[in-house]
Design brief:
The complex is a heterodimer of chains A (about 375) and B (about 300). Chain A has about 375 residues and is an alpha/beta fold. Chain A contains 13 helices and 16 strands. Classes of the chains: A alpha/beta (about 375), B alpha/beta (about 300).
Chain lengths: ~375, ~300
């Protein structure tokens, strides 16, 4: 279905990434935002709080990030599209109940505007060092979907995509932006509502008494059950069966965990989104995501000018990791380079999937600023030796 | 000799069948636990109020009481430890057309969920909170709780508890609850009456239920069996409606002041929001009414 024109601020705007995130959420039909102030993500909450009263939704500033994450799950089961945003320490606090959201298969969106860590770290400066936390930060086995925009315009578009993925795959979606993208102000074109395609929540067509919250568990993603209509269903963070009832044994655990993994793993072709440039015939390919995929441009241009056969892959989705594509590429190229604002996180996934078929390089640092393109250029020089 | 066999007993419906998930019975609670009584009290309250059960949801956290959500045939949510209240906050704001009951234990609501408790009360979220207080962490085997009376023995206060416990009615009232009552698992009719009032009260209502845990609390403290605990409640409860809440703290084997302590009016979270935004935006603002509202 199309977006509701009452929610969409159609036109050309001058917005930072955080404000664009709020506008994207409202355009996607998000009517409930629970959050806790934390730099550098706060402008998302502020914009939402400013805008939502006249759009017919609620902003609530919760007492902490634990509460925020839970409130968006509760409101999602109540029937709203919901979102929260946070950064660094707040992301750590949300991990437990990100797990609950995954376990209850609850559609929602969590934006992490990454800053430098660990601990309080660099509240006002960028980092990309929460990528492995996004992948593995909650306890237990599961798969996630994480997106990484590189501009305010892309933030607007990817938030809508994130809401769509959350409904399609019935799970929380992680939007891994960063301080640079969040605070960078650029032109953002918000299209007319009828050009914004939305995936609406799928509810069961069965009658109360005949439907269960996790029907065809382990096989399919079940449509949700609406509340207040007599389904009187139960859901729990405990390992459960298709009825949503707790079952504490190894067999139920296998079904439940496999289900959470398979719904992503079996749909990687639909989920993974890479933007490739000049990859065919390249001897070296630079991978990056978020703000780093813009910072690599001058280094790539310089190397290309010098005759280096160089390609670029911008990872719009970082998780699930594009294993197959990296395996294929590793057989064809001399080197793969990962440029990220950390000391090696997504790099290790790339390195693993290369299976030693090509050389792999990390161009990373501890964060606090973006890369110096010269450092990336030097890594490229090393990689083509 | 008459060899005719007696007629078999007719299968009878459980009197609470419409409210219990019979496919999940028997429950996991110990004999003499106060939870059965408390759940029955909620069921009786819902029944007597003739509420549309399609429009009642229950949210629990973790612990013995946390399992309540799993046995009630309502839209029911078993969340994480301490987080029943914020989950219910989101749910009740999305669904003001439904009654949201938070049913959890003292450790869940007041210790790990303590911050959520005071803020939910402050906001006057439209929730009915039933807190079963058994003075101990029971599901994990009997550890010290924020309600354990001084000198009581638990697995993690093996030499006697020396921390000062919370006085839950005082905490709830001073945080902003509009309805506060306390009963024991012995005061069944009064408990049902209080739960009914709490359910019909817009805003944050709080009912504390002092409940026996004979398996852990009573055993460790040599207080006898379930019946002895009920006898203790009988002999030591003092009904004092409107009591000074500074004087309702519970010491080890002390008198237990029970009653209805607070029953006031205050705009709920959604009422306050609608009032504030209407003042600011005038007719441009359509009062928020949840998912099924006009918006």
């Amino acid at each position: 279905m199309k977006a509701d024109p009452r929610n969409v601020l159609t036109g050309a705007h001058y917005l930072d990434g955080n404000h664009a995130a709020a506008e994207g959420a409202i355009a996607a039909g998000c009517k409930f935002f629970a959050g806790y102030p934390i730099t550098p993500s706060t402008e998302i909450a502020e914009r939402f709080a400013q805008r939502i009263p006249l759009v017919g939704g609620v902003f609530i500033q919760m007492e902490d990030e634990l509460a925020s994450m839970n409130a968006i799950l509760g409101a999602s089961w109540g029937g709203q599209k919901t979102m929260t945003c946070t950064s660094g320490p707040g992301f750590s606090l949300m991990m437990e109940n990100l797990g609950l959201g995954l376990m209850l298969e609850t559609p929602t969106v969590l934006v992490n505007v990454q800053r430098g860590g660990p601990s309080t770290g660099l509240p006002t400066l960028p980092g990309q060092a929460d990528m492995m936390q996004a992948r593995w930060g909650s306890h237990g086995d599961y798969e996630v979907i994480a997106l990484a925009p590189d501009s305010p315009q892309e933030t607007f578009e990817l938030i809508i995509h994130a809401f769509n993925l959350s409904e399609k795959y019935r799970m929380p979606i992680l939007m891994m932006t960063d301080e640079c993208v969040g605070h960078m102000t650029e032109k953002v074109i918000i299209p007319p509502a009828d050009e914004i395609e939305l995936i609406e929540r799928r509810y069961t067509e069965k009658k109360p008494g005949e439907a269960w919250p996790f029907e065809d568990y382990g096989e399919k993603i079940a449509p949700m059950l609406p509340v207040g209509k007599g389904y009187k269903f139960h859901i729990t963070g405990l390992t459960h069966d298709y009825k949503g009832y707790p079952v504490i044994n190894a067999q139920a655990q296998e079904t439940a965990v496999r289900h959470l993994m398979d719904k992503v793993r079996k749909n990687v072709d639909d989920i993974i989104w890479l933007e490739e440039q000049d990859v065919d015939g390249a001897e070296v390919v630079v991978l990056s995501y978020g703000i780093s995929s813009r910072v690599v441009q001058p280094a790539i241009a310089k190397a290309r000018k010098e005759g280096v056969k160089i390609g670029q892959i911008k990872m719009v989705t970082v998780w699930p990791f594009p294993e197959k594509r990296i395996e294929e590429l590793a057989k064809k190229v001399k080197s793969l380079i990962m440029v990220e604002l950390n000391y090696g996180q997504v790099f290790y996934e790339m390195d693993r999937c290369a299976h030693g078929k090509c050389r792999t390089y990390l161009c990373g640092h501890a964060g606090g600023t973006v890369h110096n393109p010269e450092d990336i250029y030097q890594t490229i020089k090393e990689a083509i030796k | 000799m008459n060899t005719k066999l007696a007629e078999p007993l007719k299968e009878q419906e459980h009197p609470m069948e419409n409210l219990l998930r019979m496919d999940r019975i028997p429950h996991i609670w110990c004999p003499t636990c106060g939870l059965g009584t408390t759940v029955t009290a909620l069921a009786a309250a819902l029944e007597q109020l003739k509420l549309d059960l399609n429009k009642v949801a229950v949210v629990s956290g973790i612990g013995c009481t946390g399992r309540v959500a799993g046995y009630l045939k309502l839209d029911s949510f078993h969340t994480t430890h301490g987080r029943a209240l914020p989950f219910a906050a989101g749910f009740s704001i999305a669904r003001p057309d439904m009654k949201t009951v938070v049913f959890s234990g003292d450790g869940d609501l007041i210790s790990i969920g303590g911050n959520h408790f005071i803020h939910s009360a402050r906001r006057n979220l439209d929730l009915t909170v039933i807190c079963v207080n058994n003075f101990i962490y029971a599901m994990t085997g009997g550890q010290v709780a924020p309600t354990t009376p001084i000198s009581a023995n638990t697995a993690t206060s093996p030499h006697g508890c020396y921390e000062h416990p919370f006085n839950l009615p005082l905490l709830a009232a001073s945080s902003g609850a509009v309805y506060v009552a306390r009963w024991t698992a012995l005061h069944i009719r009064r408990l049902v009456a209080s739960i009914k009032e709490a359910l019909m009260k817009p805003g944050f209502s709080f009912v504390e239920v002092i409940a026996p845990c004979s398996t852990l609390y009573a055993r460790r403290n040599k207080l006898g069996d379930g019946l002895s605990l009920m006898k203790f409640y009988h002999d030591n409860s003092v009904i004092k409606h409107g009591a000074d809440l500074n004087e309702v703290n519970i010491d080890f084997q002390s008198k237990i002041v029970v009653g209805k302590f607070v029953d006031i009016q205050r705009p709920t979270y959604i009422e306050s929001m609608n009032e504030g935004l209407k003042k600011k935006f005038g007719d441009k603002y359509k009062p928020y009414g949840g998912v099924n509202g006009d918006n």
